[in-house]
Amino acid sequence: MPDRMIESPALPPAYARIPWLKRLSTKMLILTAISVLVAEVLIFIPSVANFRLRWLEERLNTAAATAVLLIGTDSVSLPRNVQDDVLKALGAKAVAVRSGGDSRLLVVSEMPPQVDEHVEPSAVGPFRAIAGALDTMVYGGDRTLRVFGMVGDSDKEFELIMPDQGLRKAMLVYARNVALLSLIISFITAALVFGAINHIMIRPVLALRGAMVRFAEAPDDPSRIIHPGNRADELGAAARELEGVQTQLQRTLAGQAHLVNLGLAVSKINHDLRNILASAQLISDRLRMVKDPSVQAFAPKLVRTLDRAVAYTENVLSYGRAQEAPPSRRKVRLRQLVEEVEGLLGIDPAAGIEFENAIDHAFEMDADAEQMFRVLSNLCRNAVQAMSGDSDSSVVRRLTISAERQGSVSRIIVMDTGPGLPPKARDNLFAAFRGSARSGGTGLGLAIAHELVRAHGGTLELVESAGGRTVFALSVPDQPVLLEEARHALRRPA
Ligand SMILES: Nc1ncnc2c1ncn2[C@@H]1O[C@H](COP(=O)(O)OP(=O)(O)OP(=O)(O)O)[C@@H](O)[C@H]1O
Ligand SMILES: [Mg+2]
């Protein structure tokens, strides 16, 4: 059974609500009937015209045969009542025959005063035939016709004077029969065409619609995805497209459900982590009291790191959403910030990784210090992790951070001599959860860094990533200064 899509004709409930006249099937039925009728009318008119000429020709033939007979019996001496009977049978007023220069009026009754139309059936063109037929049907009935012409192979010309009443009556009967037949044919054709269109198009369209409605009711139910069958036409292609869209949508929905669950889990972990960090903060505060110089050296760093961690967790909780808080920007001394990043990384001296802070002492950038710290620590941590995994001890492992100002834009370069980004990470660059190519990695670091830089109106890009050289560049423009506010501040007395 190939076509399951066509096989499901059950109408969706909404279909019943479409008014009868507005349904596609009704429109198709009416349109087909009208088209067939128009075609029939186009055939009908010439066929009536043709009928008229044939009718007249037949009369002329009969008159000719009669005339030949009458010539043979010396017609002139025929009694008047016989002449009238012959004429009556012909439905004519007079019959004449012309041969060479000789013209004989064979039978004469009371001649009508005038002849209204002269017709030579064998010599009438199609347009004149149609015009004559319409004329007879609409205005005829009490006119006199003169029908003339050669008959068969004879060299005589025959002529018939007759009223058009009989002709008109025969034409009307013929027209009525043809019209009736046309109507029957048009309805039979319409029904056949309708049946075919209904089967080929409308039912599949309804099935497609039904599949959409059923899917919309429960988009997470895999059994509701349409089975497109193997139709090769446009509807088959549409059904396959729909299958693709529904599958994709279901995948996205599943991914989102996963994200929702993850978000909830993160909030819970975050909540409890904040409490644990708060206790660690208390303990580290006491460390500062210890007079030991080595403790005095690292205690402030520990306290600061814990403060930062508590601030993050609180931030996430208070916002309660995946989006970062908008940056609160100030002038930041970048060199100091990078020093703090270095401290946080805690690079093992035995790992042989050099950290080079190449930023000018005076370099300032306009940014949210905490967020910039997170951006740089994510980029640096990735670089350190990549270089630590590189087992070749002969290569130099160096992480360099430099910065320059280009007009109102601060451009920071994070460069390492590690192995470069693996293809998976490059293909999913900055996409949350998708780019991790490291065991134990979540694939969030670069996505977070990217989001934070974008929130500053800046860009983060991977400039280079080959074995031995990986370069990330981030450009952050200064905040635009509102001219009015700046002027106002200048005018204000200090
Ligand atoms: N400097 C780099 N050199 C080599 N590979 C890198 C570099 N930076 C990132 N990568 C690759 O990109 C991947 C994604 O990095 P990202 O920071 O987003 O996630 P992660 O480090 O795997 O996990 P986490 O969320 O814990 O940071 C990494 O797994 C790593 O393979
Ligand atoms: Mg990372």
Helix content: 55-70%
Count of helical segments?
13
* Average pLDDT: 84
Radius of gyration computed on alpha carbons = 51 Å
Low-confidence stretches: 1-9
Structural class: alpha+beta
N→C terminal distance: 88 Å
Strand order of the largest sheet: 2-1-5-4-3
**Biggest sheet details:** 5 strands, mixed
What percentage of amino acids are in beta strands? 15-25%
Order of helices and strands: HHHHEEEHEEHHHEHEEHEEHHEEH
Structural shape: rod-shaped
Explained architecture:
The chain is rod-shaped. Among the domains are: 20-189, no CATH class; 330-489, Heat Shock Protein 90, CATH 3.30.565. The longest helix has 54 residues, at 234-287. Helix content is 55%, strand content 16%. α3 packs across α5 (126-139), α9 (334-345) crosses α10 and α10 (369-388) runs antiparallel to α12 (445-455). The strands form 3 sheets. The protein has a 5-stranded mixed β-sheet with strand order 2-1-5-4-3. A 5-stranded mixed β-sheet has the order 7-9-10-12-11. A two-stranded antiparallel sheet has the order 6-8. The two termini are 88 Å apart. With 494 residues, the protein is an alpha+beta fold. α5 links the parallel β3 (117-119) and β4. The structure holds adenosine-5'-triphosphate and magnesium ion. Adenosine-5'-triphosphate binds next to α10 and α12.
